[in-house]
Amino acid sequence: MHQAALLGTAVKDAQKKVRYLNIKGSLVDEHTMILTAKDIVIATGGRPKYPTHIPGAIEHGITSDDIFWLKESPGKICGPGVCWLPDRRWPGHHIHGAQHPPPEQMAGLVTDYMEGYGTKFFWRNVPKRVDKLSSGALQVTWTDKQTGQDQQDTFDSVLWAIGECETKTLNLEKVGVKLNKESRKIIVAADDPHLCRTSTLSVIPVATTVFTPLEYGCVGLSEEETEGRHGKDSIEVYHAFYKPLEFTVAERDTSQCYIKVRTALRVGLQNCNAVVCERGGDQRILGLHFSGPNAGEVTQAFAMGFQCWATLTHLMETVGIHPTCAEELTKMNVSKRSGLDATVTGC
In this prediction, what percent of the chain has a pLDDT beyond 90? Predict the structure, then answer.
């Protein structure tokens, strides 16, 4: 379904003199693949895969591709790995082998919300085997890496939420692009000549969203990354726990709806790309994190501000649209350093 939509986009692009080739290829040099071009963009994405070393994984498991073709509810799911898709659809499933990705605080808010609605997380556990019982149920055995003990439970479906980057056949090493040996992901540094840059020679801050039941969106650096690069005394973190209108009316738990913005304090502080910029008292925004309804929509809009070197002053002088979740970003005035309660009260 998604691929068909992409093909439709390709057809439209063709009408704009964009040539679409549905073929595979590998790099010959920096400017040549099957055709020759000034710039070549690597945007292969990834594909789901089965862990072939685990007995029963292929015979009794499914991947995210198979989800779209199921004729009935998958029931109680075991989802080894970390993936947004099973989290989003059905309650009563289990996530195995998950580890909190950075930033820790935001990941904790999302998983706490999901656990409140029936999802069980088994942290730092590794699947060992999958067996089909006479009842038709699937028995999963896994090992707790902290205790070394094996544990078991039964499920209706096992969805392998793991994947692999489609970079194996591209011959990227030949043109100097470094890859992670295990994941095959591209490794880039701030000074990497292959890295996508804007005309101002600053690295593009790419916004992203995790589509869990409580969405999480971010753009820029995490709090941990900012402190590591600039020092804790050089940044300010503003945050707020807010109450979405749709949660309030339905009397849903709002304790995990949270916003965090980091700004620079010193003039001449280098940003993550080692580009010197004057921020003065305006405090340039280095990172924005948002958990709550429609986080993707909110983050996408604010991502443009990062291209314009947005500051806290810009944010505070923006008139919010009431009642929306996005308006909470324009009202933030409590810093973590102050130790004051960041819970939003009133409208």
Answer: 20
